[in-house]
Amino acid sequence: MTLAIAGLIGWGCVIGAREVLHGLDVGMLNNRKGPDVYLIQRPMIFWSLIVFYMTAIVVGAGMAVLLAAIALRGLFGRRG
C-alpha cells in the first residue's frame, strides 16, 4: 500500500513539474479558478508562484522517495 501511495505522489510531482515547465515556456500560469498570472504583467507574482510550486514539487518528490524506500525495505529487507 505504501508503494502505491509513493507512486501516486510521484505521478503528481511529474504532472506538476510538466505544468510548471509549460508555464515557464509560455510565460503564463494557468489559474483555473481565477485570473491567469502572466510574466509580462506581474513578474514578482509569477516568479514567487514558480518558486512556491517548485518547492512543493521537490518536497513531494522527496516524500515519494522516502515512502518508496520504506516500502521496499519492508518488502525486501532482512527479517531479524
What does this structure look like?
The protein is mainly alpha-helical and 80 residues long. It contains 2 helices and 2 strands, in the order αββα. It has helices spanning 2-26, 43-76, and strands at residues 28-29, 37-38. The chain has a two-stranded antiparallel ribbon. The model has no long low-confidence stretch (mean pLDDT 90).
Question: Short description, anyone?
Answer:
The protein has 80 residues and is mainly alpha-helical. 74% of the residues lie in helices and 5% in strands. It has a two-stranded antiparallel sheet.
Question: Which structural category fits the helices and strands?
Answer: mainly alpha
H/E series:
HEEH
User: How many separate helices?
Assistant: 2
Q: How many strands, what sense, and barrel or not for the largest sheet? A: 2 strands, antiparallel
Strand content bin: 5-15%
What helical percentage do the residues reach?
A: over 70%
Tell how many strands the DSSP assignment holds: 2
